[in-house]
Amino acid sequence: MTMSEENISGCRGKEEESEDESEILEESPCGRWQKRKEQVSQGNVPGIETASLAMDTEEGVEVVWNEVQFSDKKVFKSHEDRMREMFESLMHVDHPNIVKFHKYWLDTRESRARVIFITEYMSSGSLKQFLKKTKKNHKTMNVKAWKRWCTQILSALSYLHSCHPPIVHGNLTCDTIFIQHNGLIKIGSVFPEAIYGNVQHHRDDETNQHYFAPEYGLAEDVCSIDIFAFGICTLEMAVLEIQANGDTVVSKEAITNAAQSLDDPLIKEFTQSCVRMDAKKRPTAHDLLFHRVLFEVHSLKLLAAHCFINYQYQLHDNCLEEKTRTFDPNGVMAEIKHGDRPGVEIKYSNVSPLELDKFLEDVKNGIYPLMNFQRGLTMPRTLSIFQERMETVKTPSPEPQEMETRKVVQMHCNLEFTEEGTRSHLSLLLKMDDKLQRQLNCDVLPTDSSKDLASELVHFAFISEEDCDKLAGFLEDALCKHWAGPPLEESSLA
Which pLDDT score, from 0 to 100, does residue 328 have? Predict the structure, then answer.
């Protein structure tokens, strides 16, 4: 006897169930998105009635079809303009560590109004699920992984909070943070407050109450509530689970006990700074990226990878593959020289093209973000006005623009004539009020205005606006002496 009738019946039942789930229930007005019967869980997002699996027929990938029902059309009408405004803004949110928001539309044909929107499908599961599995296997959290997760989440929050106006996530929990198989972290899509306002239980949800800051819901939501929620998430990531002792609510005492159990004093200080009761005393997402527990000097390999990714659009396809093929495996790529002992040679054969491809792909996906620099660093100074206008068309508002808030306490500059003699090379060293230094280099012409140079540094967030006039005066003095004096000069200002 081969296969039993029960097994055959069971297989048929599963096939029929699978066919039922893949049945198309509805299509978007444009026909691109097809809603299926299968329900999915994408975190505890208040206000969303159903979240179904759907197919993007253009890209051939699975997405999530989210629906919000409004039983009262008057309530819907009162929120309609605000929702449209927010959804239009969210359409332009584009960050590797934020779940992509694809499309939305409003449906008022039936007696109940609906808001439908399409988001990226995260099939790998939430951070909460990953932490539970890790704890179940009696493992502790790896500090390197913890740091990598923190930087990715903060990179996303810093992006949202730097938009104009700032975008507050408002629902950051370990259930709405997703982790992919390659270690990439994504925080769930942001939704308009009008959706949350459609349900009464949002701010009274006891299971996630410990993620909410004390001021949450008492006034207009501000970025500090995301920092508080992030602090609870980092604590949960470090201890794997905050014990609720059988209750549905995680008490303040349980949070305190979890914080006290941390062995690393820097991690403990980091998490406690986020969950301060006074919202004004909490650091910003950008500040936290420079905290001692996360801050590190990036390797030359990572800087080069980001530079390659940023300018990849200027290169033809398979450029890297073609270039690596021409290298002699025994050729010396780099050499470290030592005065008292033999140097170290690094040959091309030491670098695997497959490993290099994977590393570049990870950098492109957002696993290793550059956190020690402002966003303006990636834009070349030679970008023409026409190109800037083209960029503005491609990425409309809200365009994140971070501003430098640190003050310059000391300035040094060095000017040297280049060999051609028509321009000079300017090296500018700025000492900031947090004792970190910033070194900038560029070529200047006699026609360059010191005011324009200083304004450009403000625009690209190298200096604060308050330091613009001071730096312009300093550069004006240095440039005047340089063009009228000897070929090598150095100036400083404290």
Answer: 80
Tally of CA atoms within 13 A in the half-sphere of 173 that contains its CB = 20
Q: Where are the alpha helices (DSSP H) in 311-348?
A: 319-325
Per DSSP, 314 falls in state: G
If 0-12 CB within 10 Å is exposed, 13-18 middle and 19+ buried, where does residue 424 land? buried
Place of tokens 């006699």: 446
pLDDT of residue 491: 58
The DSSP call for residue 225 is H
Determine how many CB atoms are found less than 10 A away from the CB of residue 62. 15
SS3 state of residue 397: coil
User: β-pairing, 177-179 with 185-187?
Assistant: antiparallel
**Conformational region of residue 396, where left means phi above 0, alpha means psi within -120 to 50, and beta covers everything else:** beta
Q: Is the pLDDT of residue 133 over 60?
A: yes
- Measure the CA–CA gap between 170 and 160, rounded to whole angstroms: 11
**Rounded (5°) CA angle 323-325-329:** 115
Assigned token pair, 392: 């503005």
Give the whole-angstrom CA distance, residue 379 versus residue 342.
40
Q: Which of 177, 144, 162 is nearest to 368 (CA)?
A: 144
